[in-house]
Amino acid sequence: MAKSSRKSTSTKSASSEQPARTAYFNRELSWLAFNRRVLEQAQSNRHPLLERVMFLSIVSSNLDEFFEIRVAGLMQQVDSGISETSIDGLSPQEQLRRIHAIATSLVSDQCDCWQQQVVPALAKENIFIRSTNDLTRSELSWVRTYFEEQVYPVLTPLALDQSHPFPQLGNKTLNIAVSLDNPDTPEDEQLIAILPVPRILPRLVALAPAKSGAQRYVFLSDIIKICAGELFPGYKVNGAYAFRITRNSDLYIEEEETENLLQKIEEELLNLRRGAAVRLEIEADVCDSIFHKLCEQLELSQDYVYRLRGPLNPVRLMSLLDIDRPDLKYAPFVPVNTSVLRDTSKIFSTIRRQDVMLHHPYDAFTPVVDFVEHAARDPKVFAIKQTLYRTSGDSPIVRALIEASRIGKQVTALVELKARFDEANNIQWARQLEEAGVHVVYGLVGHKTHCKLCLVVRREGKRMKHYAHMGTGNYNPKTAKLYTDLSCFTSKAKITNEVAHVFNTLTGFGRSPTFRHLLVAPFNLHRRINELIAQEARNAVAGKPARIIAKMNSLVDKTTIDSLYAASQAGVKIYLIIRGICCLVPGVKGLSENIRVRSVVGRFLEHARIFYFQSSTRAKPLIYAGSADWMTRNFVRRIEVLFPVDDPDARRWIMKELLPTERKDNENSRMLHANGSYLPPPKSESELGFSLHDYFIASALKRADDVKQADDALDLPTANP
Predict the structure, then answer these.
(1) Which phi and psi angles does 647 have, rounded to 5°?
(2) Between the CA atoms of 140, 142, 148 and 150, what dihedral angle is there, to the nearest 10 degrees?
(3) Pair 337, 674: CB distance under 8 Å
(4) Which of 47, 274, 455, 468 is the S-S candidate for 385 at Cβ 3.0 to 4.6 Å?
């Protein structure tokens, strides 16, 4: 990135550039508001203490990605002279200016939460985070020994002078800048050296156990600063300051001009280390000489610098969750396997008889894995087709696909190489799958394959029968314990035939495929969603019942927002459950007075996409679930699939339990107001707190207990957890 892109964006007064009020919220600022809601979880005593530390870590992880991708993109726009405004009329410069102001406040509050709330609370639990000023003589001795034995051998000091240029420091790595004096030099000469800290070293170091049983920790950066003089014998250390650089981490690939996409992405991943700096995090008390030196070398103005009074990378605080203190964590919950699919020997006959819906993480992900594993080993199964966007490091699903291929089945895997921050992992899986004989394809040029589909082709008698799994979440057993998602298994030909059509379109040629039941981006999804919204508006005008309930991660697409505004003005009651970004402004008279927006942030990450249209053109409401948010990228630049929920039991559960419970929550929820604020839903003094996550955990445990009692009565093996 050119130097000009990092100059200050504050050349004009903010007041002179305030845009007129628009009907849309800014995407980037809405995302920062979401991260503020995550921070509120860390600030809340409602969560166990160590879980609050986890939320602090998530705030930092989210901010890292935000700067690596979103801020980096805006800086590139400025550098390229692009003046295209956002949905709310803000220029890239103005967005960067506002991001800096809001992010500064957010990070400051995060530091305060750690220093003023969490650290004292940990101390009350006999867990102590030692600062350099707190260390006793014996602790200081232990620290110096640890440095000599564990840290000193892996550190490489890098001088900055005429013969030593500024080093290429890795993205999000911890570094220590050291200010030095040479006592033998008569003039007052300040020298600077950099200590890059290898990632392999723990950032939070456990001191030797105390006789009292207290658990004591000290930050690695403090250890290095205390002992920095040992690396520079003969020099005087004036000060040492930790800092961290965030770099542009987006991949820019012209797929149409790339002969080997996998190889090209591998090359680009290597280049990310050298991406342009987009943020500098540094200790608040850093001396002026080092501060200005870093800004100069990184070509960053103060608009992209964050002075911190707390840990530079709270993501590493996640290691505190390894402490064996169950009283400071959520009560353990093991997802239950109570579905009709738990008998794997009958998995295909069960799906042939009925559709099956699962609600993760309350329902175990086990049946999804069983479905693929059983298909891999079933001699009647001839082919398996699978999408892979994100999966676990040791994926049982990938292993099953490899096994199936090696024993002669036709296996096709659509691996998304451009799944952000999972590129390297997916390249590894792609190579292993190819080596096993799996047909690995990378989807359509210019599109990410984001849909969650698995298709099994099984010979039954003289015909081939299709079985499908369709989901809202990734094929990742680990995140399936943390994300709320839906899984649907079906053998209905009208659906499975179209799932097969999706795969054929992605692996072959299909310019204008036709789908009657599935909503598939980029082909018919955008058009159909807006048609369904418009149909509800026509019903409302005609005096018929009209209601829309939509649950998703993000709402950004302007065309769809405008359709919702038109439906609201027609009298449609619209209830949106949007965890993250929302560019729609609710509750504005004459525009959106019939629209309410709720965000749920809590123990589990709300990830399922569910869409309910009350009247449509049929006798019963239409319900869809799937992978797509209502963002332009999902409609235009991704392969997405929404599937209809037709099973009566599943429909009844969504309408009578899932969606009402989401709306009933008053602990994890915040309501979006027209001024952009997210506030707790109104609650009377006598009203008890209600958490949808606690409710569904209790429901799952009751189901497991009911199944156990039924099995015991029949003297059958208990349902597997």
Answers:
(1) -60, 130
(2) -120
(3) no
(4) 455
pLDDT in tens, 406-462: 999 999 998 876 545 455 666 777 788 888 999 988 767 678 889 999 999 999 999
715 Ramachandran zone, left/alpha/beta (phi>0; psi -120 to 50): left
Q: How many CB atoms lie within 10 A of CB 596?
A: 17
Looking at the domain that runs over 20-116, which CATH code has it been given?
1.20.58.310
CATH architecture of the region 340-512: 2-Layer Sandwich (3.30)
Instruction: Report d(CA 92, CA 673) in Å as an integer.
Output: 25
Structure-block tokens of residue 454:
């698995």
- Calpha distance 199→204 (Å, rounded): 12
Name the amino acid, one letter, at 493. Answer: A
pTM here? Answer: 0.90
**Domain 520-681, CATH:** 3.30.870.10
The residues annotated with a catalytic role in the active site are 450
CA distance 88 to 71: 17
For the record, the structure tokens of 146 come out as: 């640890």
State the DSSP string of 203-230. Answer: SEEEPPPPTT--EEEEEHHHHHHHHGGG
Rg (CA), the chain: 28
- With helix as H, strand as E and coil as C, how does 354-411 read? CCEEEEECCECCHHHHHHHHHHHHCCCEEEEEEEECCCCCCCHHHHHHHHHHHCCCEE
Nearest to 597 by CA among 586, 605, 588: 586
